[in-house]
Structure formats: structure tokens, C-alpha cells
Amino acid sequence: SNFKDFFSESHTTLSKCIDRAANINEEQNIQELERDLSHISERSPASVECVFVTALCSINKRFLMMENAAKSAMDCLVDLTSREGDWFLEDMCLIAGVVIKLFALLANYDSDLMLHSAHKCLQAAYTQYKGLQELNLNFTSIILPEAIQTVQKEDPTVLSLIEELNQVIDSIPCKLSDLINQLQLHLRFVIMGMESPHENCRKIVANLRKGFESLVQSPDSADSLSPGQMLFMGFNGLFENLALGLNTLTAALASLNTPTSWRTVDQLKEAKKISALVFDASSRYILEDIFLVKRLQTMQELFNLCKTNATGFHGGLNSPLLPPDDDLLNRPVRVFTADYVSSMLLGVFSQTLAMTICLLLQKIGLNVTGEVEQRDIGAQNKVSLEELCRICVDGAVKRRQTSTTNLNQASNAMSYLENAYRRNELNRRLKQEMQRAEMIVQRLQLQLTAHYWLHEDVLSLIPPPPIIRSAFMMELRKKFTALATLQPKLSEAIEQQRSLILSSEQRLKWAAGANPALSEVMCAFETSVCINNEQLLLEQRMATMVGNMCNSVIQHEALRTRTSEALTNDTAFLQIVENWETSCYLSINMNTTLTPVEESLVKLIPPDPVLDLIWINKAETLISESVKTLLQQMEPQKALMFAAQDNMKVVIANVRAILAAHHRIMGDIRSLLKSMAKFEDSGLAGLVEYLTRYRAYTERLSAFIKSLLSVEDLSVDRAVLALQEIVTLQEETPGIYEDLLHFSMDGNGKSSNKRPPLIRQNSLCVSPKLGVPRDPQTGKAVQEKNAYAVSVWRRVRMKLEGRDPDPGGKCTVQEQVDWAINEATSLENLALLYEGWTPWV
């Protein structure tokens, strides 16, 4: 109901703005009125100048009255309004805008430096009022809706920056309100020229400024800005624009010097009384610190109100009874505006305008200084500016610079033109108010609708919001369908564009090759194409994101509304919850446990709702069908397995045949090795161990082949053991046959690739004196093998086999002949020959 009340109030405000705008007549032809006044000025320039000065004096008097009212309002300035209900700032901007437009009609004022400086001050002061007006307008139309929306949807970047802002504020040793009070006391001491005991507060503000500047510091790329950073930078940018305008105003005021005698002019004197402290350079820096703290206070209050509003929107136990309305949400910025006007701008515009009027009087021909000094000021100690204007007009009439008729014509034209300017400014302001009110109404309308849809179950008895759900969903579905239709067309258009671009690039390359001056055109074309492609890709991604979001919303709404599909899903969900409750109850109250087989059976066929005979029969049927299906699936696998076993037996038979051939080949070598093993001086160390290892290897291989051939049905375990045995045999086989080729090692275990040196051997013939060796048991003669003969026989055999001189490798006939020739012609071998043989002959 509170949201509906806010919506009704905003709608009423919008209606009032529309009625006021309708009551205002159409804009008068300002250009025509300006042209009439220009004609009068051509006939009688003095009459227009006199009327112009008189009009400015009257306007400044009204502006002074408004400033005095604002000064008297003090802390209530934020609530000060006119009889029509307009805020005080709107009326001040209206009058200041009329003055600026009237001043633009004055010609040849740039030649006067003082008058030109005064006009710059008026323009800068008006810019400040205009900036405050734009601050409130942009805050209401941009910052406030974005802050409310992001806080309501709990955007993490916004909440994070709000938390960082609170940390920066909490880092100072006092509250912001206490810091403002200390700065104001410090300002009083500075104004009075006394030593201030609150000087330390400016150091606190410096630390606060440093922390806040790091918080709102802009990143290198604008594309990387998060929603929180954009919100904070936009909000802070409104205040920064105001601060820049203040620097311009203070620079313009510094160039404006008021003569001492003119300070007794009533409007100058009254404006001086209420003038802001911005005229004093020493106090201006303290005011800047004060308004920096007030800026942070305004931002903190706004975000706290947005959090309260979001809590009320979502509902719950901690939600406020009355969420903040639009006036309360705008109040922090309005308070800042009122304080800014009161401390920075009061008296600036009126004082500058009074100074400008005096300069214009002097330009017309009135000696303002002389008139002020000749007058008996009296107890009031001031001279009326209106009286000076009247003296100026009378003097112009006496000097026949103008006439009463011309004055009346100029006065009427000036009055019409002033009213036209006023109505034009009022019309412009009402249009802004209408736009602002429309945005507020739209925001509250969306917020009311979202709140109603969020709490629809609770608010079912309340009348529905302005936006009807069914109509909204239908419109959303139409837009989504149209967008989904356009996406393929967009992809096709992109492909067509890409082909056209490739064709154009090819032609440009040809043209650039013929005319180098076209290289710049080609570079510009490529740059334009890149920018266009990036834009198209961005739009395509955005279209996809929007389409996905619309689809999600449509699906969500389809499930949450009472459609047949939604009701079915709700029923299924409630059944799941009920089953879960039953399972929890049974798990707590029953001690029996299920075996893994039973759990698998329950997962395979979930009971509905309990285990009974029907479920058992169903499980039996399903298991039987599953077993039958598995047996059918196993038949092809069995056939493949039997075929693999037959293939394995064929391969094993081939291996056995190869092994038999190997045994036949190794028969001669094995007998030779056995014979050589009997002689210790054969030079083959480790031969006995090798023969033992070789016999174990062959026996193991034969047994393995025999065991595989005897198997009828190979099981999985047997197959695994067979694979392990094959791996073991594969690892042993290279070592067996490599060791066989490396028995040319000498006694020291070193390779003897070279031929051993030639040495003289004893004859193998047995001397008759020594006798023939006999067997001691039988007495028969024993034939002894000559070791030298055995070694020669072995060398001959190795030569025939091509393994001389390297027993570890086998060489060809050509290689062996080359080696023999090299050995025969070797100087090392020839040096061992007997000199008497003269082998060199």
C-alpha cells in the first residue's frame, strides 16, 4: 500500500505540472520582441539603456528579497518554496536566467574591461545555480533510479563499493557530522583572525580525501568499468562539475574590484551583508573541505536509504513499516544544495548585478561616485540604487538624449521581452519537471509491479498493479520471437558483408599496387572494417544475452504460473519432498541396512511407494529380461573369444615350430660350448653360468608353450598370468642371445677386438721320452686335447662364420678380407717379424 501511495503522489505531481504547462500561453515570438527593441535602440539608444538599467535594478531588488528569505530560513532552507510550490532554487535560476538573457541584448560592453569582468562574474554565478539545478535533475533521473535498482538486485560491485565507502568514512576518528562541526568552528576562528584549536580537523579531511579519491579513481579503459564504478563515478561527477564551476566563479570575482564609495549603495551593501564566504580566499579552502565531507555524508545517506528501500521491497522480518518515499530519497541531495547556496552563493549574484548596474550608469553618463559622495547619507548610511537610476533617466531627458515617449516605448518593449523570457524559462523548467515526474512515475510503476509480482501470493487480495502480467508476458514473447527471427538474418548479413569486404580488400590491394597513393585509403578502410566488425560482434553478443534472458523469464513465468506444466512439476516436486520425509523417518526409526545388491536393485526399480508383491514380480521380470539381454549380448563376445583362442593356438604352434628349428641350430653350438666349458683356459669366463641360464630359459619357454596348448577354456585370470609370463620372457630373451655373442671377453673382462699378439707356442707333439699319458684305472692311453689346437680351430671357425676379429658382430667377406690385408700391412705386426726374413724385399 505504501508503494501505491507513492505512485499516486507522483502521478498527482505529474498532473499538476501538465496543468501548469497548459495554463502557460504559447511562447511569444521572442525574436520579434527583440527586433522591436532593437529598432527602438536604433532611434534612441539612451532610452533603451535607461530602461535596461531600471529593469535590472528592479530584478536585482526581487533577487535580494529571495536571498534574504533564504538567509533567514537557515536550516529550513531545504523546505523553502514559493506560493506556487516551487523550490527556492528554481525561482533563483529563473531570475538569473532572465538577467543573463537581458544582458545579452546589451551591445558594446566588451570594450569596458570592468563591465566585461562583471558580466563574467554574472555568467559564472548563473552557471553555479544552473549546475545545482542540473545536479538535482540528473540525480533524480539517473543516479537515484540506478542506485535503487542495483541495490535491490544486490549487485556485488555496488555493494562492495558501498562497503568500501563506509570503511573510508569509518577510518576517521570521529563521525562526519562532528567533523563538519569542527570545520565550521575552525572557519569562525579563521574569519575572526584568531588561532584555531581545530586546525587538526583539516588533516583528517586530507586523509579522508585521499581515501575517497582512490575509491572513485577511474580505470585506464572505460570498457572495464563495473556497474558499481559507473554509479560512483557518475554520482561524484555531478559534484565535481560543481566544484569546477566554483573555481571559475572565484577567479572571476578576484578580477572584480568595487570602488570604496560605491559600497554605500543600498543593494551592494545589503548583498555584502548576506554575501557568502567564497569572497574570502582564506575561508574558501575550509569551505571546500566542509563540502567534501558533506558530499560523502550525502552519498552515505543516499545508499543507506537505498538499502532500507531494498529491504522493504524484498520484505521480511527486518523490513521497515514505511519505506522511504521519493521526497526522502531526494532529501540528502537537496540538503547539500541548500547548504551550498547558503555558504557559497548567497549575495554573489546580487552583489555582482548591483556592481554591473553602477557600471552601466557610469557608462550612460552618470557620475556614480560623485552622486554618492554629494548625498547626505544619514543614519541609514546607504544610497538608493533606484534613486540613482531615476537620476540617470532624468538627466538623459534633460540632456535630450531621449524623450518620454521613447522611454515609454522602450519600457513597454522591455517589459514584454522580460515577461517572454520569464515565460520561456518557466516553460523550459516545467518541461524538465514533467520529464522528471514522468520518470518517477515510470520508476514507481515498475517498482510497484515488481513488488506485487514478488509477493503475489501474499498480495492476492490487493488490486493488481498498472502493468498486467499476461499482457507483459505476451509482449515479451512477441519481442523474443522477433529477436530470435532476426538473429539468423544478422548472421547471414555478417557473412555476406565479410565476403563483400574480402572482395573490396582484394581490389584495393590491386589498386594500391598500381597507385601507392591509395595506401592511406586502404588503411582507413581496414580500420573502419575493424570498428564495424567489433560493433557487429558486440550487438550479436548482446542480442544473444537478451534472447537468453527473455527465454529464461518466459520459462520461469511458465513454471510459476498455474499452467498444466507448472502444476505437473509442482506435484512431482511435492511428491519428492514427501518421499524424502518418509525416507528420513524410516532411516531414523529402523535398524535394518541394505546390502549393495539391494541398493542397486532399489535404484534400478524405485518402489512406489512401498515394497510389495507387485514390486517383487516387477523386479523379477525386469531381472529376467536383463539376464536374457545380457546372455544375448554375450554370444558374439563368446564367439570372438573362441576365435581368439584358436588364433592363439595357431600362433603358439608356429612359435613351437620356430623354437624346434632354433634348438636344431643351437645343437652344434651347445655341444661346442659344453666342450669349451670343460677347459678353464678357454678364455670364456661365465660360460657355465650362461649355459645354466640358457637351459632354464628354454625349459621355461617350452613349458609355457606346452601349458598354453593344453588349455581348452582360457579364463581371465589365466590370461592375465599368461600375459605376465610373456612380458617376462620378452625381457629375458635379448639378454640370452646378446650374452652368447659376447664371449670374446678376456680374463680381465675387457673386450679383445684386436688380434692377440704373436707369441711362440710349444709344439703339441709329445716327446717319446715323456711317454704317452694313460688312464690310471684302465692303463689305456688317453688322447689329450692340445689347447693351442683348440684355439686355432676356434679362430678358423670364427673366420668362416665372419666373426673374426669381433666375436660380438658378424661381418661380410669383403669386410673380413679388408681387415686381413690391414693386419698384414700393419707396422705394429710387421715389427715383430724376424729381420732375416727381409719381408720388406
Automatic annotation (TrEMBL):
<dbReference type="InterPro" id="IPR003152">
    <property type="entry name" value="FATC_dom"/>
</dbReference>
<dbReference type="Pfam" id="PF02260">
    <property type="entry name" value="FATC"/>
</dbReference>
<protein>
    <recommendedName>
        <fullName>FATC domain-containing protein</fullName>
    </recommendedName>
</protein>
<dbReference type="GO" id="GO:0016242">
    <property type="term" value="P:negative regulation of macroautophagy"/>
</dbReference>
<dbReference type="GO" id="GO:0031932">
    <property type="term" value="C:TORC2 complex"/>
</dbReference>
<dbReference type="GO" id="GO:0004674">
    <property type="term" value="F:protein serine/threonine kinase activity"/>
</dbReference>
<dbReference type="GO" id="GO:0031929">
    <property type="term" value="P:TOR signaling"/>
</dbReference>
<dbReference type="GO" id="GO:0005737">
    <property type="term" value="C:cytoplasm"/>
</dbReference>
<dbReference type="InterPro" id="IPR050517">
    <property type="entry name" value="DDR_Repair_Kinase"/>
</dbReference>
<dbReference type="GO" id="GO:0031931">
    <property type="term" value="C:TORC1 complex"/>
</dbReference>
<dbReference type="GO" id="GO:0005634">
    <property type="term" value="C:nucleus"/>
</dbReference>
<feature type="domain" description="FATC">
    <location>
        <begin position="809"/>
        <end position="841"/>
    </location>
</feature>
